[in-house]
Design brief:
Oligomer: single chain
Bound molecules: nicotinamide-adenine-dinucleotide
Largest sheet: 8 strands, mixed
Structural class: alpha/beta
Number of strands: 21
CATH class of the largest domain: Alpha Beta
Protein name: enoyl-CoA hydratase
Mean pLDDT: 93
Number of helices: 28
Domain 3-hydroxyacyl-CoA dehydrogenase C-terminal: 501-595
EC number: 4.2.1.17
Pfam family, one: 3HCDH
Pathway: Lipid metabolism; fatty acid beta-oxidation
Shape: globular
Length: 696
């Protein structure tokens, strides 16, 4: 199989110095003939370096040896092809509850990093691939950072409800413009090679083959001097300017990550505002704050989300054996799926009954590749791999065919019949249908065992989840291939069984419809959206409906109403009328909201907004989630939680719908649902599965 292009670094052998070598557990120390020592981190039994306590202890011993016999310079680099160091070992944070004990452990870690920083020879971090979290902090403690082209640096801690905890808060804000440093830490975004150089994080960008020369040049420098921060940083070291900047950051952060739900970025702003420019005070505050944050429900739930992702990734273990993919239908989804597969290294042909969508699909691929930070050469390769194929020549060659034609049952059956005739006998056929029951589609194939669902979410490059949908006749080999393939394209494979709406749409649709019904009750749309956002949804249900397209929502809702045995909310008349008028949401410029520059034009917050019944929205989802578990649509509660978080952004700090239900108390939820059923109708009748939810 073609290697994914993003790991090109893996094809190059890494320059790891030479000379006699001493082992320090997860580290090796080599001293080359020029007097430069190379500290190589190579964590045992794993493909990715993390900065666990053991790795730090090993580093401490290595530093002792370096101090005892000071080299001309010390290079710190990773032996792993994928990158430098991915961050702390998150499993060490799980279940943390004793702040003092955590602070103690952090102080020990700071001691090691401070020791590296204090070495009396130039220290040079060489970073290829990622330097994240603790890895970035280790690199910051060096005098210089050489980025191998393609390297990136970032602090993803906010995504775990934390901020940097091993000196990153003060080292980065000392090294570069502090407002840029804060932006990186507050958003969790990474700085890719060129940006890292521009910001002053990387001192030099080089290629692997020139590394020796670059190291030699830095080894000759004095070190310990950086002046990339400039005038602005000097001003921000003064209190009043910092207060003003912190105020601005606070209000911007509140919009994206309200303090009530996400305390970490606010704590970070507080640390910088109170102690910016005073390294020692900042270090103490960073340790105390990190030790506190890690014990909060938010951080523990977000750490849970981290492990949920790992769990889904595991579904993708194994090799699919797929090298070529054919996509039928180059509309919104087909084009995105094709682009993504080509970016991830697969040979893709794509067909459509119209020519225009094929051209657009190629443009889409170039755009997505650019957003994914691919170089010009890599983009050229992506476009070489993606072939518009109006006559479907690729169909007969492909290992995997993905059907992404319009959601019309007759059309799909007709198409699948012809795909079945033309595809190789050993090829697997998948459909991206959102709502059609798979058994009915499978019946048109000669061998239904080679057919299953591969339900991507829109946009494919942003939403990681893919439902791998089984039906009674799908073979185990087909499902294994689809799971592995999903893993190979870096998405999260989620096995579900065919069911109206599968898993995610079954749970999401009642919530969207309840919001639509509230509009019928003359509640301001912005107020409805805000109620869901207050719960922690990244955007309200009506904005979601407008973004997805009211026509698509209507299709899914209609199909659910027809197929589910349980009552779901009426589809309000205004929704059909809007769709008939072509007011489809964002794509047509008008839906529930008017859209301008990709943003819905909402009314301003007012008192009415806080009175919207949040439970009507959220419990609609939870009740459907419990039904899905009871019906065995998904194998276990954790997979359900993960699916809703990664496909819909379900308030991640709450750990997923079932986790939230358990924390809130299933008995209380059942009582609330009964009350809602009395007031609003039988759609709220508690699912019989609630009796099992309390049981872990
Ligand atoms: P779309 O209307 O944007 O694209 C469909 C494409 O199929 C069009 O380019 C059309 O010309 C082409 N087409 C029509 N008949 C064809 C035929 N006989 N052979 C080949 N091509 C044909 O639709 P979409 O939104 O991309 O949806 C495609 C599928 O993906 C549907 O099953 C839908 O339910 C599912 N889906 C959509 C979304 C979404 O958000 N749009 C999300 C997940 C799944």
């Amino acid at each position: 199989m073609n290697k994914p292009v993003l790991s090109v670094i893996g094809k190059t052998s890494l320059e790891l110095g030479s000379g006699p070598e001493t082992n320090f557990g997860n580290w090796r120390l080599r001293r080359d003939e020029s007097g430069v020592a190379w500290a190589i981190v190579d964590c045992k039994d794993t493909g990715t370096n993390t900065l666990s306590e053991t790795v730090l202890t090993d580093l401490s011993q290595l530093l002792e040896a370096v101090e005892a016999d000071l080299p001309k310079a010390l290079v710190v680099r990773s032996a792993k092809p994928g990158g430098f160091i991915a961050g702390a070992d998150v499993s060490e944070f799980r279940g943390a509850s004793d702040e003092d004990a955590i602070a103690e452990r952090l102080r020990a870690g700071h001691g090691v990093i401070d020791r590296l920083e204090a070495l009396k020879c130039p220290t040079i971090a060489v970073v290829h691939g990622f330097a994240l979290g603790g890895g970035f902090e280790l690199a910051l403690a060096c005098d210089y950072r050489i980025a191998i082209d393609g390297a990136w640096f970032g602090f993803p801690e906010v995504r775990l409800g934390l901020h940097p905890g091993l000196g990153g808060t003060f080292r980065l804000s000392e090294l570069i413009d502090p407002t840029e440093a804060m932006t990186l830490m507050l958003t969790g975004k990474s700085a890719h090679t060129k940006k890292a150089k521009k910001l002053g994080i990387a001192d030099e960008i080089t290629q692997e083959r020139h590394l020796r020369a670059a190291v030699a040049a830095f080894a000759r420098k004095d070190g310990k001097q950086h002046n990339g921060r400039g005038f602005k940083a000097a001003v921000l070291d003064l209190g009043p300017a910092r207060n003003m900047a912190a105020g601005r950051m606070r209000s911007q952060t509140e919009e994206k990550a309200p303090r009530e739900h996400y305390p970490a970025p606010h704590a970070l702003i507080g640390i910088w505002e109170s102690h910016g420019g005073d390294r020692s005070a900042m270090q103490q505050a960073e340790i105390r704050s990190f030790a506190h944050l890690i014990t909060t429900d938010t951080a523990q739930n977000l750490i849970r989300v981290f492990f949920l992702r790992e769990k889904l990734k595991k579904n993708g273990d194994g090799k699919s054996g797929v090298t070529s993919v054919h996509i039928v239908g180059a509309g919104t989804m087909g084009a995105e799926i094709a682009a993504w597969c080509a970016i991830k290294g697969f040979r893709v042909t794509i067909s459509d009954i119209e020519l225009e969508p094929l051209g657009k699909a190629v443009e889409e691929a170039a755009r997505t590749a650019r957003k994914e930070h691919l170089s010009d050469i890599e983009i050229r390769d992506v476009l070489d791999r993606l072939m518009p194929d109006p006559r479907s020549y690729g169909l007969g060659e492909a290992d995997l065919i993905i059907e992404a034609a319009p959601e019309k049952p007759d059309l799909k059956r007709e198409l699948l019949t012809s795909i079945d005739e033309r595809a190789r006998e050993d090829a697997v056929i998948a459909t991206n249908t959102s709502s059609l029951e798979l058994g009915g589609l499978a019946s048109v194939l000669k061998n239904p065992g080679r057919f299953a669902g591969l339900h991507f979410f829109n946009p494919v490059s942003k939403l990681e989840l893919v439902e791998v949908v089984s039906h009674p006749q799908a073979s185990a080999e087909t499902l294994a291939l689809l799971n592995a393939f999903t893993g190979e394209i870096d998405r999260l494979p989620t096995p579900v069984r065919t069911y109206p709406g599968f898993l995610v749409n079954r749970i999401l649709t009642p919530y969207l419809l309840e919001a639509a019904l509230m509009v019928d009750e003359d509640i301001e749309p912005a107020a409805i959206d805000q109620a869901a956002e207050r719960f922690g949804m990244p955007m309200g249900p009506l904005e979601v409906a407008d973004r997805v397209g009211l026509d698509i929502c209507l299709d899914v809702a209609d199909s659910l109403r027809d197929k589910l045995e349980k009552p779901i909310a009426e589809i309000p008349g205004w929704m059909r009328k809007r769709v008939e008028k072509g007011e489809l949401g964002e794509k047509s410029g008008q839906g529930i909201y008017a859209w301008k520059d990709g943003e819905p034009q909402k009314s301003k917050a007012n008192d009415e907004m806080s009175s919207v019944n949040q439970d009507r929205l959220i419990l609609s989802m939870l009740n459907a989630a419990v039904e899905c578990l009871r019906e065995g649509v998904v194998g276990d509660p954790d997979t359900l939680d993960a699916a809703m978080i990664f496909a819909t952004g379900f308030a991640p700090f709450r750990g997923g719908p079932i986790h939230y239900a358990r924390q809130r108390g299933p008995d209380e939820i059942v009582v609330t649902l009964e009350e809602l059923a009395r007031r609003h109708g039988p759609r709220f009748a508690p699912d019989e599965g609630w009796k099992d939810i309390g049981k872990e």
